[in-house]
Amino acid sequence: MPYVGTRRQAGYRTLLRSGELYDRVEQARARLASCRVCPRHCEVNRFEGELGTCLVGAKALVASAGPHHGEEFPIRGWYGSGTIFFASCNLRCVYCQNCDISHQPNGEELEPEALAGLMLELQEHGCHNINLVSPSHQVPQILEGVLVAAQRGLRLPIVYNTSAYDDVEMLRLLDGIVDIYMPDLKYADADIGRRLSKVPDYPQAARAAIKEMHRQVGDLVLDDEGLAVRGLLVRHLVLPGGLAGTAEVMRFLAEEISRDTYVNVMDQYHPAAKATRHSPLNRVVMHSEVDEAVRLAREAGLWRLHEE
Fold it and tell me: In total, how many domains does the chain have?
């Protein structure tokens, strides 16, 4: 696949015309009755108001929405990425920099029509895409919103901006709907994931999810202006003291996904939330640690490393 392509029609518009998008919505909604939307498989009935770890019911819960100019250039472009922040999360990262909305259900419950309205407003604003942040626990609600928005003229590509703690069966329902997957591959070690994000199987779940994402969209393709058209963009936040297991993460991406994977080695870690209680998370990441992470990525054979 070439790395430079032309703008293409968002896949969900094809599924809307064929009727498949309606079927996907129904299949996703059915998983809310005994919740298996994310890998936690809480099996609560969200239609009846029962709440699992994410503390979100059957309606979309949105914290905020608007053009975002802080993403990677292929995502934000000149006019911003049309970002929708979904409240709460299926992880409980001790260093979360958005813990006020991620650790609590601090948001507004929206019907599908209202969620669709946000997407259409972002399109009207001139944003390059619809960027779904922390979507893993609200996929059925998101699909309902996409369906309504598509019926009303939404045409922008969809970015799925995730921690990568995603259920593979739910991801399969997004095949042909999501154009750009943007997962953050956090850890290589399950014990670290358990200690820092309170989940027992982060590496296993995230690796399976990223394989499925890549199967659907392939390597990241940019148009002739440098904007993302389709594909996979992986983020990796460098943590103090090597906690992220960068060497193993990069080997996985190079050997089991693609050496052409577009990777952003992220250097912005700083102590937040409960990080001050955990050494070495109670300090900023050092330049030398970031440089080492970049070296490890290149050593693994990855070459498409994001640079502004």
Answer: 1
Residue 197: CA atoms inside 13 Å, Cβ hemisphere, count? 26
Distance, CA of 101 to CA of 91 (rounded, Å): 12
Could you tell me which residues are beta bridge partners of residue 109?
61
| 8 Å CB contact between 162 and 213 | no
Residue type at 202? Y
Nearest alpha-carbon partner for 193 in 122, 83, 182, 184: 184
Report the distance separating Cα 71 and Cα 148, nearest Å.
26
Contacts of 58 (CB under 8 A, 6+ apart): 32, 46, 47, 141
Q: What span, in angstroms and rounded, lies between the C-alpha atoms of 156 and 124?
A: 10
Q: Which two tokens stand for residue 167?
A: 């259920």
99 pLDDT above the threshold of 60? yes
Alpha carbon 146 to chain centroid distance? 16
> What does the buried/exposed string (b/e) look like for 261-299 if buried means 16 or more CB atoms within 10 Å of the residue's CB?
bbbbbbbebebebbbeebeebeeebeeebbebbbebbee
Place of tokens 């939330």: 273
Residue 223 pLDDT exceeds 60: yes
Please report, for the domain that includes residue 274, its CATH number: 3.20.20.70
Checking 64-68 for CB contacts under 8 A at 24+ apart, the result is 64/101, 64/107, 65/118, 65/121, 65/122, 66/122, 67/122, 67/125, 67/126, 67/127, 68/131
The 3-state DSSP composition of the chain as helix, strand, coil percent (nearest 5) reads 40, 20, 45
Confidence check: pLDDT of 197 > 70: yes
In this prediction, residue 1 carries a pLDDT of 41
Residue reference for tokens 């994410």: 54
Q: How many CB atoms sit inside 10 A of residue 100's CB?
A: 12
CA 210 – CA 227 distance, rounded (Å)? 21
Tell me which of 2-16, 204-218, 284-298 is least confident.
2-16
- Domain interval for residue 235: 4-305
